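hey so i finaly got around to running the thing on Tc1-like transposase DDE domain-containing protein from Caenorhabditis japonica. pasting the sequence first so u can double check i didnt mess up the copy paste, my clipboard has been acting weird all day
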Amino acid sequence: MEWPSQSPGLNLIEHLWEELEKCVFGIRARNADQKFSQLQTAWAQIPQSLLTNLIQSMPRRCQAVIDL
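ok and heres what it spat out for the 3d tokens, dont ask me to read them lol
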């Protein structure tokens, strides 16, 4: 079976990780506990609209994979 080199992503967590990275970029942590705390704070601040948009995009993403 042939696989396309770049297929539409179905893993929404990748988009959420990208958002978290933007939020904590450049903020130094002294240890793992401090970084975890920073990530928890950033996670809580992710706008509900972003989550809604990601969820609502799933039918389109699934169809794009089917159309390949």
